[in-house]
Amino acid sequence: MPRIAKETIRKMLESSRKLARLLNELDSTSHKLRNLIPDIVRLERDSEAFIKASEIMKPKPKPKTLTPTDPAPHGAQTHEHKSTEPMP
User: Fold this and answer.
1) Looking at the 3D structure of the chain, how many domains does it have?
2) Has residue 76 been placed in a domain?
3) Rounded Cα–Cα distance for residues 80 and 12 (Å)
4) Which residues of 44-75 are buried (b: 16+ CB within 10 A; e: fewer)?
5) Which pTM was predicted?
6) How many Cα atoms within 13 Å fall on the side-chain side of residue 27?
7) Predicted local confidence at residue 51, as pLDDT
8) For the chain, first and last CA: distance in Å?
């Protein structure tokens, strides 16, 4: 919507003037918001790229191998208690 000139607004009656000023303000605000869209898109892409890079660069934990001297993990069966049920 084209902006309403100040000179035109001055010639209007009070209620029309208020409405015209609000329309100009709405036009200005929507224009500013439209100009922000490319910045928001760029920030979203940068954020996604950063998250992916962080996941790739995160060191992966090495699986721990049990040696005969290590205690068995909680709930694991030991050699003394052999069960006839198969392990899940």
Assistant:
1) 1
2) no
3) 97
4) eeeeeeeeeeeeeeeeeeeeeeeeeeeeeeee
5) 0.51
6) 11
7) 94
8) 69
